[in-house]
Amino acid sequence: GIAAWAIAWDKHVFADLIQGEDQTPYAAEVVALTTLYQALATAAETLSPQPALTCIIAVDCTSAIHLAHQDYPPDQYFQFYNSIQRSQQRLRHQGLQVYLEWTPSHDKRPDWSPRRGNPTLLRQLNAQADAAATRCLQPTLYRLAPWLLQHARATAWAQTTLQWAQHVARRFDAFLAPTS
């Protein structure tokens, strides 16, 4: 598979494909979160000191939020965890408080209300990021379409062949079975 990450900020959206072998939706969420934390930390360091500021980040992946908040290094994604931890430290030093607010994706949970932030805005930003990630994937999926079709056909042929082989094996077992 392939995956893309995206970050929506006001009217601006940034998106890119995931690099490397791990192409899971979780990896996309972690890359987006890591990228955003790094950008926020860099921006906070270039601005003159401000009174305590708050930044609320809409995240639709509870596992990514857990990675950012856990107190111990994970077995996987250590590089991302370490980068997020360093960025969080830089942000605290600059007086910027960052909150990760779980936000349901794709209009799920209509009754949802966040602990912090405007639910309509958080949903809009999440939808913008999801749409941008999808748009980012489209050219690659278009190029892969012939291969994906061939793969689907090969998979269907293999499944049918295995079913027939299983049928033949049962019949052969029945033929060889001793009769009483």
What topology does this entry show?
Blueprint: E1 4-9, E2 12-17, H1 25-46, E3 53-59, H2 62-69, H3 78-93, E4 96-102, H4 119-176
Parallel strand pairs: 3-4
Antiparallel strand pairs: 1-2
Name a few traits of the molecule.
180 residues; alpha+beta; two-stranded antiparallel sheet; two-stranded parallel ribbon; 4 helices; 4 strands
Describe this structure in words.
The structure is a single chain. The chain has 180 residues and is an alpha+beta fold. It is 58% helix and 14% strand. It is built from 4 helices and 4 strands. The protein has helices at residues 25-46, 62-69, 78-93, 119-176; strands at 4-9, 12-17, 53-59, 96-102. Strands 1-2 form a two-stranded antiparallel ribbon. Strands 3-4 form a two-stranded parallel sheet. A hairpin with a 2-residue loop joins strand 1 and strand 2 (12-17). Helix 1 (25-46) packs across helix 2 (62-69) and helix 1 runs parallel beside helix 3.
Roughly what is the average pLDDT, rounded to an integer? 90
What does the main sheet amount to? 2 strands, antiparallel
Q: What is the CA-atom radius of gyration, in angstroms?
A: 24 Å
The run of helices and strands is EEHEHHEH
Backbone structural class: alpha+beta
**Strand order, largest beta sheet:** 1-2
- Unreliable runs, pLDDT <50, ≥5 residues? none
Spatial gap, N to C terminus: 53 Å
What oligomeric state do the depicted chains represent?
Answer: single chain
Q: Tell me the total number of β-strands.
A: 4
What overall geometry do the principal axes of the alpha carbons give? elongated
| Helix residue percentage | 55-70%
Continuous helix count: 4
Share of residues in strands: 5-15%
